[in-house]
Amino acid sequence: MQTLVEDFLQHLRHERGQAEHTQRTYAALLGRFVSWAGEQGLTDWGDVELKHLMAFLQHERDRRLQTEPETSTKRLSSESLYLEIAALRAFYRFAENEKLLSSNLAENLSLPRRWKRLPKALTGGEIDKLLTPEQPETPQSLCDQAVLELAYASGLRLAELRNVRLEQLHLDAGFINVVGKGNKERVVPLGRKATEAINRYLEAGRPKLVTPKSPAAVFLTRRGTPFAAVTMWLRIKQRVRRAGISRNVTPHMLRHSFATHLLENGADLRVIQELLGHASISTTEIYTHVAGSRLRLIHRQFHPRP
């Protein structure tokens, strides 16, 4: 069964161009089903029936989360269940199209309602704190400054930040070529502050981090290697703490802040969609709820008859 899963993952990687994170997620979710199926005596996908898929999902709903104590009543969230069903449906669709399985059992699985969480954005004051350059300058501090300025100026995802290469920078013209999900390219303008921070890092920081084995990645660790996701995430968290911001800030919050602040200052939603690299405008529309709540707050605060 695992061999067929590997074929599917190869398909995601080489033909669909799915993001590395998506590939890892699907591998973990399908691996969980394969492990459960083995415990049930199922060794071939052809032996799996709809009742087995339903039993597996019920098992997932009922199982205790590994990160929780035995006394905890917390169970799998509907969002996690949504991802498990989506992984099974994608796998079966591939297997049916490639004539590896005769039918698509997973098409009969209905996806649970997926509640949209409103994205959390930093305030203008928090952004100012976070983007205040640290002294004294070091190669690492210059790298952090460039990462944060670029993240807020362009709304890049964490994976896009990590994977930016030197040839994607067009600082004289004030823009960057971004390779996003599905290997889709987009052009994102850069502001003056971001351009200055990146130039400063390239001149005084990166040359001291480069080793003979360093790739053309813009951002490098102390060892001259590209950032792993967790390493860049931790560097951002450490910078947040040093800036005196008490909130739990994630790299994605800089992307949310980028979009929210653009919308609050009058940017068109279609433009924000293009800048973020969203395939569908419906994904971008969630920011209108954030802007709407902000407008209501301002109205209550300043209108003479709130």
Structural account:
This protein is mainly alpha-helical and 306 residues long. 56% of the residues lie in helices and 4% in strands. It has 13 helices and three strands, in the order αααααααβββαααααα. It has helices spanning 2-14, 20-39, 50-62, 78-97, 124-130, 139-154, 158-163, 192-209, 229-242, 251-264, 269-276, 281-284, 286-302; strands at 169-170, 175-179, 185-189. It has a three-stranded antiparallel β-sheet, with no helix packed on it. Strand 1 (169-170) and strand 2 (175-179) form a beta hairpin. Helix 1 (2-14) runs antiparallel to helix 2, helix 2 crosses helix 4 and helix 10 crosses helix 13 (286-302). The longest helix has 20 residues, at 20-39. It is globular and about 65 Å long. The N and C termini lie far apart (63 Å).
Through-space gap between termini: 63 Å
Strand fraction band? under 5%
Q: Mean pLDDT score, rounded?
A: 86
Walk across the major sheet and give the strand order: 1-2-3
Cα Rg: 23 Å
The assigned structural class equals mainly alpha
* Biggest sheet descriptor: 3 strands, antiparallel
Quickly list its features.
single chain; about 300 residues; mainly alpha; 3-stranded antiparallel sheet; 13 helices; globular
Can you give me a brief rundown of this structure?
The chain has 306 residues and is mainly α.
Architecture blueprint of SSEs:
Elements: H1 2-14, H2 20-39, H3 50-62, H4 78-97, H5 124-130, H6 139-154, H7 158-163, E1 169-170, E2 175-179, E3 185-189, H8 192-209, H9 229-242, H10 251-264, H11 269-276, H12 281-284, H13 286-302
Antiparallel strand pairs: 1-2, 2-3
Helix pairs in contact: 1-2, 2-4, 6-8, 6-10, 10-13
